[in-house]
User: Fold these one by one.
Assistant:
Number 1:
Amino acid sequence: MLLKLVPENTHYRFMWLRRYSFPLSALIAVASIVLFFTVGLNFGIDFKGGTVIEMKTNESPADIAQIRADLGTLDLGDVQVQSFGGPDEVLVRIQQQDGGEPAQQAAVAKVRSSFENRVEFRRIEVVGPRVSGELAQAGTIAVISALVVILFYIWFRFEWQFAIGAIVTTINDIIVTVGLFVVLQLEFSLSSIAAILTIIGYSLNDTVVVYDRIRENLRRYKKMALPELLDRSINEMLSRTVMTSVTTLLALIALYIFGGEVIRTFTLAMIFGIVIGTYSSIFLAAPMLIFLNLRPGGGQAKADKEDKEEDDSAAAPA
Amino acid sequence: MLYFARWKIALIVLVVLAGLVSTLPNFFSTETLRQMPDWLPKRQIVLGLDLQGGAYLLYEVDKQDYIQKRLKTLVGDIRQTLREEPRIGYTGLGVQGQGVQVRIRDVQRIDEARNRLSELANPLVSSLFGGQQVNEFTLDVSEDGLVRFTFTEEGLAQRVRSIVQQSIEVIRRRVDELGTTEPNIQRQGEDRILVEAPGENDPQRLKALVGQTAQLTFHMVDVSMSAEQALQTRPPAGTVVMDSIDEPPIPYLLEEAPLLSGEDLVDAQVSFDQRTNEPVVNFRFNTSGARKFAIVTQQNVGRPFAIVLDSEVISAPVIREPITGGSGQISGSFDVESANDLAVLLRAGALPAKLTVVEERSIGPGLGQDSIDAGRLASLIGAAAVVIFMVLAYGRFGVMADIALTANILLIFGALTFLQATLTLPGIAGIVLTIGMAVDANVLIFERIREESRAGRSAISAIDAGYSRALGTILDANITTLIAAVILFQLGSGPIRGFAVTLAIGIFTTVFSAFTFSRLLVALWVRWRRPSHLPI
């Protein structure tokens, strides 16, 4: 082949790295949690309420200082103005107004009448306090219920150690992704929840593929010590893991560069999530099984749940 | 795994062709499609508001406003009931929090008062409790003559439900008049109404039309004192001061009880005043309204009356002669658009309660088009990158995976078109993500084939084992993503839901194309070339 990202028959010793990968991941996860509670997420209007107005100015480039000054005279409280996409495109964020939904509408009306002649309003989004509260709740419920349902699915398909390992790994991925949002102060909106759910899906996808091979090898090499077996499984799947990550990243990078400003944060989160998901399925999900005592004593095979494994008929070649 | 029955081959090819046929109309303009024969499929993908531009408005029934209004009417009803002969003396009648309170003077007549008032507790037929009757109010009467009406929870809920229902009808009539194409108006939860107007590029006007209560009333103007005087002192009993819509507003002193209201209207049209050539709104009453109007105008020739819309005086003409024909004219300072909007509002009727915008998202057509262009470019480049990469990594098998990927994309678009699911910008992202991940199924299979081949199997046996062993893995891996997509669909509205839909459809088409289509391609190739070793 013209391109071989991963050589054949690799024998990297991934398990040996767990004494570095575990503390490192734990450190990053703890740092993310600390940052989450100290610095905090940059919540978008979906969860905080408020108004976002995207406008295209008649002159190019847009005079952001002037727009900021003009908005300042309207008495709308905290207003942020930033360029967005092209040089003549500006994004205005207006904080939640005191006085509930009618006050929000009044604020938008003020901005409209003040800028009507100078700009084209490309997007106006107003989210009231009640709706934003509900969205935040719905988003949290969605992420948690996704985790629970998937936990049960993996528990049903594999043994409990796999389910725990997969969920702990996935939670780690979520925490670190949220950490990225905090560190870069990316706007956290409803689409960020969508990105996180996708990352959950992808990360588990990756983890399940590796676990699948581990389960197969557990039956094939009944005497092999667990760390050695895990290393072997990961090496066998390494080519696939890298290939899939690369194609997915190729598609997402195209989306990041050409897909427009509106979904850029969404795409960035997913790119990050794919990288983290790939890392964690190799360096966290697999070694976690050693900690969870998947094969006590290292050499002795554990009784398999044969009744559940109908599609892979053990070692003997068909 | 490499043997296919003829009917299976036919079926697989048919599915892919169906995807192609269903996708095709998207490549033509609606104009071209109209000219094509009828038997061809013509449905195109439904674009979300974020792609075609439009307005998304979420309204909520203002319960407090409704409760206050309802309690006010209840006060009036109680007053009337107690004043009926033989009168029952009472004191302290008024709204108290979420209820109405009144004290019966004569403790001896409490039972009589209770009997009379109990009718006002107003039984409603509940749709929720299987047609059971629920009372709108509970009636508490204490020993010492204190009577209290309080909203029951079910009664209020029932009222809110019917308000939402009525409002939807009214809004639909109004939006239809605006000429918006395919608006979506529906109930959302207990007390909310969603209005989606695709392609609507003036959300301000839409909002003005949808959100206005449009309660039209006719009041006599009280000329016993000027409005300024009334404001300074205190308006006489049964009168109220209302401002006009002029800038600056002019206050009018009006009799509080309306003579007539918008419910008596049957029609309203814009026309032009013959003298001033200004736009005016002509309206017509129904029979009973016309009769009332005739009597009132007969009795009050020479006095001014006011036409009031939502507590604002539009105009206050003097009655010159009795109007017996049942029609009238509202002239204010209208332009054609505002006159037209008023006519629309009057024709569609008033909203039963005030509505508040709790969420608004409007996207201009410019941004929508930009997003489509960006999404298209990103998908093409992303797909091209993946396709090239696959050929570089897997050679001939990569080409087959690419053909399967193309079929996969066709199937996604075909399914979206066929199901008339809405494509949004995050939805496009979902497709791009699927393009990246779809390859995974093929990669899993090919890697497995490589392994089996290295383990010393013959080409055909390795391919066979590769497919059958990868199946379980692929299913497990895709089901986890599918679970995430389904939950996302539950959570999401609009754009996010579009993402969940394409992701879910993508999972099905991916598994299909990897397990049937690409396997078929490999099988045909094996049958054709009979390879002894694998080019993989």
Number 2:
Amino acid sequence: MRGMRLVRFILTRLLQAVPVVLGVVVLNFLLLQLAPGDAATVLAGEAGGATPEYVEQLRARFGLDKPVIVQLGLYLKNILLLDLGFSFRNNAPVLGLILDRLWPTLLLMGATLVVSVGGGVVLGVIAALGVRTWRDHLISIVAVIAYATPLFWIGLMLILVFSIRLDWFPTSGMENVVAFHEGWARVFDIARHLVLPTITLSLFYLALYTRLMRATVLEQRGAEYATTARAKGLTERAITLRHVLRNALLPVITMAGVQVGALLGGSVVVETVFAWPGLGQLAYQSLFARDFNLLLGIFFLSACLVVIVNILVDVIYVLLDPRIRVGGQS
Amino acid sequence: MRLFKSLALIAGLGLTAVTVAVGPALAQKRGGTLVQITQPEPPSLGSYISTANPVGQVASKIYDGLLEYDFDLKPLPGLAQSWTVSQDGKTVTFRLRSGVKFHDGKPFTSSDVQFTFMEVLKKVHPRGINTFAELTAVETPDAQTAIFQLNRPAPYMMAALSGYESPILPKHVFSQGDIRTHQNANSPIGTGPFKFAEWRRGEFVRLDRNADYWKPGLPYLDRIVVRFIGDTGTRAAALEKGEAHIAGFGAVPYNDVKKLEKLPNIQIVTRGYEMLSPVVELMFNTKKAPFDNAKVRQAVSFAIDRKFVIDNIWFGFGKPTNGPISSNFAAAGLYSADVMNYNVPDGVERANKLLDEAGFPRKADGVRFEITHDITPYGEEWRRFGEYTQQALARIGIKANLRYEDVATWLKRIYTDYDFDLSSNHLFNLADPVLGVHRAFHSRFIRPGTVFVNGVRWSSPLTDELMDRATIEPDAKKRAELYAEVQRIVVAEAPLAWTHEISFATVLDKRYRDVIVSPLGLFSSFDRAWRE
């Protein structure tokens, strides 16, 4: 019964997502029209001494000579057919370009989520268990510092210390391009390259989750069910781990859902500093190149991902807290 | 894998033996990977349709040209082993090398040359449309002969036949389908020393050694990997650590160059940009007051302390100048120093005097008039150069408000809308003034929407005519006289204020030798580069 309802819930939400995503596409398309200059100008600019004939050729080829409303209509039609178009600047289909970058993005995103949520939960609980002891103070101070330090600076400092001085990790990239390892050696090599960017990207969220977790654990421990458990004679440790933790996780899961959206776009800085081949850099470059087909494609994919993650978060809620019902029915 | 390596080693040893026996007694060694940093990542590898800097840095290893060039810009044999120019300059006959194969194994013949020039470069290459405008036909009497028929003589064409500027394409590949969106743009097939192997977007392009390269024993390197690192600090770190071995064209900012120079494993090379020759200029909107007045423009040029700019903004990597043609053309006789000199100690006084004469007296607050200066959006140096210009102009009573926009917006403002007072830029002289210099002030190049041309909208019938004559003048001495006259006039009229030639700095790992061996530097094939 509950399983059936869950499936129906997911299907409804997916159906509702279609107009949302289309709305996002139209809005993005119109917003991008406001940017001055076009792809032909930028391409010709990079070319140096481009002739007028060449620039006209480019405009006609990109369809930039057509009215905006016609361009929008064409784009919507293609999106509905799941055709993301062609990036003239990269001379390649948009879908392929995005898929190439997707797995490094997901890898970095996944590693960051695990480290920041896992680390944040553990540190938050430790701080809450020893509230107002030196452990609590130390964790809180470090969290504030991590929260306030700019990402690119942390990244560069990590490179300076762990890569150049100590020589533990490579400076940048996703794998060693001189050795080109294969098999398990390659997995290990990629993991080594993953360490510094993951730490850099995680610190901010780690701090956020630590503080959030500490606060909710403290709050939940004052709740009536905790008092009841205490009256039963359970130790503080057992109460926290068995009863409080589950309830305290909910806000963290909500934040993590929001973080996924931010990670897709917000890792531009870290991707740039560590030359990580992710979507953020691609979006950044295509914005400056006015490569709107590619940019719209990335926006489209990000919108889809955010919608899916939101549904996923709702489902996790239900699993964590049986009192929450899906689909608004009781 | 191990077997393959042993075989490669044996093959390598064999080749080394051959080179030692034949070549000079140098200790070149086979093997090794060169990691090059190119910034930003190229949008494609189609150097026949895009002359964007990063495209050239990668594609020049894959495609050969008909000719190569020495540091004096003199042509050397490339895919053409010899050539003759007819008396009237209108027929050029190339004798092509035989036995050359493309990377897919198909032979290179004169029909590839014909296809490349007539169907590709003349039609879609951003500069080729102009360079080969006079080319009417490429005749192919046999597989090893290509005869270029010209409408009028085009001496500058002989300087534009490198693998970077005019890459030779395989007809059997690129004649299939639309050349503008050809799929092989991103998986190029040429005759060059390195074959395209893989492009992982956002990460690297991998080029592997072409074992069938037509130069015996070359290339020495097994592989070139071109990496893309978006952050300047990380690029410097990768070079410092030896993870990357070469980077040029401002990929490493000058202040980092100075730091890296002190490391024992790194050297700084300034050669290898002779065929590009960038010259920095201040651009005036000559159609609008106050810069429609030549005296005002001259005053601005006098106000710029070139030595200060070079020492403090470009960290010493530059050379003061007054005119549009780079001193790299001194050997060819095309550079003239006999022009009005703005680089004088009493520049500020002379500028003030000129502005008084022009009818712009200082008002009560010491300001003569107010303008907007558009900073070139190319990074740190340019921003500082903009800030310096603001200060320099303040000294002569011009109040400049700075404006900073992104590249696309700035290009549109300067070259399409002409909605500016003052800005700065640097144009490459390229291999010949016809290709790189005329565009800045010839009336034919006042074309709204086309970037890096005559954005100042200044021209004169006399200079137009002199340049048109120089374009087709086959006699080197007469040509030099024509250009001397052009330089004398435009420097005095000052539609642009040319301030200095930039020297780019290439950061190179000392273990790698013979990397920069041509005036095209990073745009050359690296066929002779080797690792200690």
